[in-house]
Amino acid sequence: MKQRDQWTSKLGFVLAAAGSAIGLGAIWKFPYMAGMNGGSVFVILFIISTFAIGLPILLAEFVIGRMGQSDAITSLKRLAPGRKWHLAGWLGLAMSFIILSFYSVVGGWILSYLVRALFFGLDVTDHGALFDSIISNPFEVLIAQAMFMILTIGIVQSGIKGGIERASRWMMPLLFIFFIILAIRSLTLVGAMEGVRFLFVPDWSQLTGSTVLLALGQAFFSLSVGVTAMMTYASYLPKEESLGQSAVNVSILNIVISLLAGLVIFPAVFALGHSPAEGPGLIFVILPAIFSQIPLGNVFMIIFFILMLFATLTSSIAMLEIVVSSGIRKKHHQRRKASWIFGLLIFVVGIPSALSFGVLADVQIFGGTVFDFADLLTSRIGMPIGALIVSLFAGFVLTKAQTDDELRMNPFMNGLWKFLVRFAAPIAIIVIFFVWIVEL
């Protein structure tokens, strides 16, 4: 029987895990959330929350995954036999399936923009109208979504070493290089320093309870905790590698990419007279409009959407890997077949989300489109519940001897982590969850 794959190096694992976390959350959501919620104050709260809440839960998933040495469902069964904790694995599986079903729709939008920028240019007068025409065209969105899923399947079917690790090794460094190039170009615009001040000089009048909660939520979700992706990735990690150092590295990379995204966007936004509080359209509407106003704008736009594609793919392959890993269990020879079967099923389930802004625009669920409902179901309900279960499992079910053996940190750091996953993280999750429920 073929043995379970392992990462060939800690670098490969860290880059893949960081890639899972660094997706649309860091590049698309972080800038517009910061823009709408006080800029630098939101950034400071986001960084604090990442290390105080997100990092401990991320480390909890790493511990459970490497101890269990299998998919999340099997790992939780092994560590708590005869109990119901493995239901968290099933929840993570379901959430990953649903997330990728609508995440692939956004991946398709990015492909559409990239193709247009490469072959036709995006020199239009109304970028809002262009965005609306793309997402409402049923033929285009379905073709683009299908192409994005084919890219994802092609990587996952090749396994950990030949697919996910190899892709992450070149996509993540290119992600940094492209971001640095774009940030330098953005910072050279006249008036760019206003955007830098907005991002890094705090205006404490913007500090509100809502800003604290939103920053905490952004930190929590940007690390991809709560869907067992990190648990699955850690199951392929050799015992000699440091989980604590890996978790810190992933968290730092996530923060750095988020800040680089801010340095790309906000200096350009302020330099060209736009509002930082434009909301979700900042990437697809405002940014192309900005690029069209600067020299070599189409070149930089192409670089940006390639970057966006890389970031989205690194997250999508993590979502599909959760489903495939759970589906094949020990039948490693079935990876290729399972990747295509589950990938195609996810594409079919995502069709209503893809059509949410066109032929199915009038279909409303809880006041939103099918796409909005899938997002709400996962990010505001499923992920918080999943992360809460993981945190409580690591804090109260795993023994001190078990966690100390996996973490191999000094007694103070072990004790601090245990306190955070037992008390601080669960309380924060519950607060976020109920605030969001009230907002529904």
Structural account:
- With 440 residues, this protein is mostly helical.
- The longest helix is centred in the first third of the chain and has 33 residues, at 87-119.
- The relative contact order is 0.20.
- It is built from 18 helices and no strands.
- The radius of gyration is 21 Å and the shape is globular.
- The model has no long low-confidence stretch (mean pLDDT 86).
- The protein has one domain: Amino acid/polyamine transporter I.
- Helix 6 (127-135) crosses helix 13.
- It is found in: Membrane.
- The chain crosses the membrane at residues 12-30, 42-64, 85-111, 141-160, 172-192, 212-236, 248-272, 299-320, 340-361, 381-398, 419-438.
- Its main location: membrane.
- InterPro entries: Na/ntran_symport, SNS_sf, YocR/YhdH-like.
- Keywords: Membrane, Transmembrane, Transmembrane helix, Transport.
